[in-house]
């Protein structure tokens, strides 16, 4: 029995840390906290009415996701979105995701297609309503459902991390580069090709889809840098 209290306390800290991380992630992705913004542990602990321990754990989690950098003598700051980072992330996705789709597509069931259809319907609704927060979440779920039968757990874990890291980039791409309608059309076409057994065509479209998102973001950064 004496061991239960430390374990319970540890679990409580992890739960609080997850809630803090989720809220900070939302603010970063939604642009409330800009690149370079300093995240002060004391101020955050006061705001969330928690100790510094779960705040520190939350910041470490966000650092692992690439949203935050923890620097000596400066503490935690919101990471910058760089062209180099965008290029690396989307090049890795373009390499791995078509491979996963090829392995998974023929094993997708009617239940899977029903879920994909539901995601597309909600995606369309959220785009029309401009609910930015849900775009990245639905995009990530859509891709994960497509790849879930690949039976390549390491590659799937890597891609899961890449999709999470790309969440902020995806929202930026959709909202700032006019990619909403194109994403909607291409996602629907991916499902149609997989359902009709045209897996090679689906993989080719997926690769182009990912590469084009990366290109549009890099183009946006280049144009933005010219005007700043």
UniProtKB/TrEMBL annotation:
GO terms for molecular function: DNA binding; DNA-binding transcription factor activity. The keyword Transcription applies. Gene3D superfamilies: GntR ligand-binding domain-like, Winged helix-like DNA-binding domain superfamily/Winged helix DNA-binding domain. The keyword DNA-binding applies. It holds the Pfam family FCD. Residues 14-81 form the HTH gntR-type domain. SMART domains: FCD, HTH_GNTR. Keywords: DNA-binding, Transcription, Transcription regulation. This is GntR family transcriptional regulator. It comes from Microvirga aerilata. The lineage of its organism: Bacteria, Pseudomonadati, Pseudomonadota, Alphaproteobacteria, Hyphomicrobiales.
